[in-house]
Amino acid sequence: xxxxxxxxxxxRKYYRIMRKRAWIIFALFSLVLFxxxxxxxxxxxxxxxxxxxxIEKENPNVMSIQEVLAVDSTGTDYYQTQYQIITSRTxxxxxxxxxNLQTNPEFCAAPGDDSFVSNIKNWFAETKRFWKEKFLSLxxxxxxxxxxxxxxxxxxxxxxxxLGRIKVEPVRNSRIVNxxxxxxxxxxxxxxxxxxxxxxxxxxxxTKLTAAKDAVKWLTDQMDEERKKxxxxxxxxxxxxxxxxxxxxxxxxxxxxxxxxxxKLNAQVxxxxxxxxxxxxxxxxxxxxxxSPDMLDSISQVLxxxxxxxxKKMEVELYNRMSELSKKYGAKHPQITAITSExxxxxxxxxxEAKRVVSSLRNEYNLxxxxxxxxxxxxxxxxxxxxxxxxxAIRYGVLQRDAESSRNMYELLVKRFKEASLTEExxxxxxxxxxxxxxxxxxxxxxxxxxxLLGAVLGFMAGIGMTFLLEYxxxxxxxxxxxxxxxxxxxxxxxxxxxxxxGAEGAPGDLITVKDTKAMASESFRxxxxxxxxxxxxTPPKVILVTSAAPSEGKTICIANLAVTMAQDGxxxxxxxxxxxxxxxxxxxxxxxxxxxxxxxxxxxxxDEVIFSTGIENLDVIPSGPVPPNPAEIVxxxxxxxxxxxxxxxxxxxxxxxxxxTAVTDSLLLARLSDGVVLIIKTGLTPRQMVxxxxxxxxxxxxxxxxxxxxxxxxxxxxxxxxxxxxxYYGEGEARKKKRRNKxxxxxxxxxxxxxxxxxxxx
Length: 763
Fold this sequence. Notes:
The structure is a single chain. The two termini are 41 Å apart. The protein has an eight-stranded mixed sheet with strand order 5-12-11-6-10-7-9-8, with helices on both faces. The protein has a four-stranded antiparallel sheet with strand order 2-3-1-4, covered by helices on one side. It is α/β, with parallel strands linked by helices. The chain is built from 29 helices and twelve strands.
């Protein structure tokens, strides 16, 4: 709810701002609308013709040369490039030359065209050309002119004029493009549109053919270079084969054979090494056991020898016989001795056979060792040959690849050369005309309804923009919320502008509270009086200083009417005119000014001599008296303090009129002696910063600010709803209308001047 409320207040504020400066909105609205109407109804009708083309996605070439010449036509940048080409100066110059537009009356003003608009345009053109020539002559002093650039600049205005009439509009989600041209002559518009499309197609085809020609020329030069490279690379390969004695081509089969040889030799070496280790092991074992008969049996070659096995059988038989005979005979029996002799003989034979087996193992070991060494030497030779072959193969491969690469490049260039030669003769493109431009039947410009509506909208928005711009730069106070937001002091109420002519019974014109008690201004002063009385919770202020930040803000009129309302409320009130520089209180109450505050403080007059009755019950006034040379010393003197103390015993309210705060220091001296200060601010006159400075000065002397009064509000412009309510409820509006009608009848123009003059006296 709070947000809604704030928003409504802001809307009303904006409405008041626009209402306040409604004449600016109306003036700009009328001016822009009038300018739009003049332009619309005086403009020459323009006709628009459109030609439609399609830009294909891919080039319709059938040759592979498109890989060299074609561009990526699928991206948006390609189509944007084509749109720029359509509106290029090159295409425009071709259209101008084809249609001879330099002599066309529409592009070149006819000699008989003596209209007001044409004369103005010609005058501006001649003036521009004159100063341009003067400027160029100053810059190019002593430098030769470039005739080519001069000729090109000569038709620049014509090219610009043509390009300004061409519009390129792509159709959304398609490859179709509309080329629109505007002209005063409908037939000329159609001719230009068709000429632009045709010139663009010719330009596109010419670009491709030029690219093909350039490609053919480039391919021819490259073919000669590549042919020489082929000859050089092939000769280098042949010379290398001859010098290195290479008869193979180092194919994969040769490499595989070499690898197989190395693998086989390596396997044989491993096998021979294994056999040698095995033979060596057997030999070492046999050699270690050949001198030990008991250990010979552990050698498998000896154990598996047939002769050794037969000897062992014979030994077994002899041992058996010896065992049987030993049971019958003694150890020295001849038979046992014979058996023992045979066993010794068998043992010698077995040892001899074992030595022969060990000798055989030694021979096997030597043979295996020799075979192993032979295979290792063969493997080393094969590795050396393979490494040497690999080195030759690397160099050979490099030369062979150079030769093949040069040969392939040459063959590719020959192929591309043939394709480019054929493409050069092709007259096809990827751009086609769908619909040629036709002569339009009705103009497209000016659109009267649209222009007038646009002028009205722009005028209204310009008026609103100017209104708020002026409001932004206006740093005066106009609304109560501005006082609360910028000054942070209470707002006591508004004072509307009122008529200051004398009343029917001779009531002073400035005292609206006496002249017309039912007037809106009278009610406003009564509301301000109430706000002042309730500004202090404990005790209402008795000595009240009324001042302003700047001169001519109406503080004297305000203090006089406030005093009247307080006196009407039953309080005994006195006004002290302490504005001794520009006193006006005596003028409001029509009192003499020869006696007053200056004479009283100076000791020339007594208090009762300077107190004047106003004729209003309960209200007295002490005028300022003669203007003294030292007003600040008078109001700041000790006698001033004593005067206020004495007046407090006689009166309920003491109102002090003082000079502006920012002008002199009198108000600050008086503010220290007062119970509260009322700040008068004139609507739309006093800058905010000046009021802030005045408020800071008042607060610097520790004076209490009761609040601010917004003076001179124009009820018919800056009013709130309650102003209008007071205005009509109390009947002031109707009374003033009747009064004005009577004045118009009786006094005419002079009477209105008198009313304005008297109204101005309020301030």
